[in-house]
UniProtKB/TrEMBL annotation:
Assigned EC number: 1.-.-.-
Record key words, sorted: Oxidoreductase
Official protein name in the record: LLM class F420-dependent oxidoreductase
Residue span(s) of domain Luciferase-like: 16-117
Phylogenetic classification of the source organism: Bacteria, Bacillati, Actinomycetota, Actinomycetes, Micrococcales
Top-level taxon of the source organism: Bacteria
């Protein structure tokens, strides 16, 4: 890895990322902001890096169907020139329901990475969204590593074994800061159910991890939500994130739920619990 991500980061939809949030994230000791929601305009990465000194930015992820590899490479080189070593280009194929021209996922990923090679985007400065065995292996072989989304601790253990010791493993994990388990599950459930429990790639991955059709029905069982959303007080949430590191991840990025709310109060408490600042 040439990009220093730190052990803990923040995942946020690109449209919600601001310079103010970036400055606060750096002050709180987080290492990276992940720009989610398939961003096509990466000028926000420039804006974040311009106002911070140590924080890294990663994309989680640039969608291969929405952004041609040539455009992604051009953005990468622009950002890298201005802020060397602080930008990780995360790419992925998204999901078939959102793309009318969805072709073979594996062949598409290979072709896109070939194009990034031709455009001289360094292997160590890019990552691949990966859930299943073939994608995880491809991530380890052709990029710095994998950025799995909507995964459990067991997936992190499986991914580390599959990818080997050297590849980057940087999972996203959802968090709800609420000590009432029932209330926390109700807050976290929409962030899991919509749209992910309607998408076959995520459903297939959850099935590989042992979850049933009943677990994935009606917004997700309590067992499923508990596995995908760390909740409780700040210490409990911090422990849930750290568990990914203990399971083999190099870095874990927290997505504060509900989306649309101000994530800073929760991020501040989690930072204190982790003793990041």
């Amino acid at each position: 890895m040439t990009v220093e991500l730190g052990r803990y980061g923040i995942w946020i939809p690109a449209g919600d990322a601001t310079a103010e949030l970036a400055r606060e994230a750096e002050r709180l000791g987080y290492g990276t902001i992940w720009l989610g929601g398939s961003p096509t305009d990466l000028s926000i990465a420039d804006a974040i890096l311009d106002v911070t000194e140590r924080l890294s930015v990663a994309t989680g992820i640039v969608n291969m169907w929405a952004t041609p590899a040539e455009d992604a490479a051009t953005a990468f080189h622009r950002i890298e020139e201005r802020h060397p070593g602080r930008f990780l280009l995360g790419v992925g194929i998204g999901h078939p329901e959102a793309t009318a021209e969805y072709r073979s996922p594996y062949a598409t990923m290979v072709d896109y990475l070939d194009q990034l090679d031709a455009a001289e985007v360094p292997v160590a400065s890019r990552a691949l969204a990966a859930l299943g065995p073939k994608a995880l292996t491809l991530a380890a072989e052709r990029t710095a590593g994998a950025h799995p989304y909507l995964v459990t601790l067991e997936h992190t253990r499986i991914a580390r074994e599959r990818m080997g010791a050297e590849a980057l493993l940087a999972p996203e994990h959802k968090v709800v800061l609420d000590a009432d388990p029932a209330a926390a599950r109700e807050t976290g459930r929409p962030g899991v159910a919509k749209p992910y429990l309607r998408l076959r790639n995520y459903r297939a991955n959850l099935a590989r991890l042992g979850f049933t059709e009943e677990d994935m029905a009606d917004g997700g069982s309590d067992r499923l939500i508990d596995a995908l959303v760390a909740h409780g007080d700040a210490d409990a949430v911090a422990a849930g994130l750290t568990a990914h590191l203990d399971a083999g991840a190099d870095h874990v990025n927290a997505q504060v739920l509900p989306r649309g709310s101000d994530p800073v109060p929760a991020l501040r408490q989690i930072s204190e619990a982790l003793d990041l600042a």
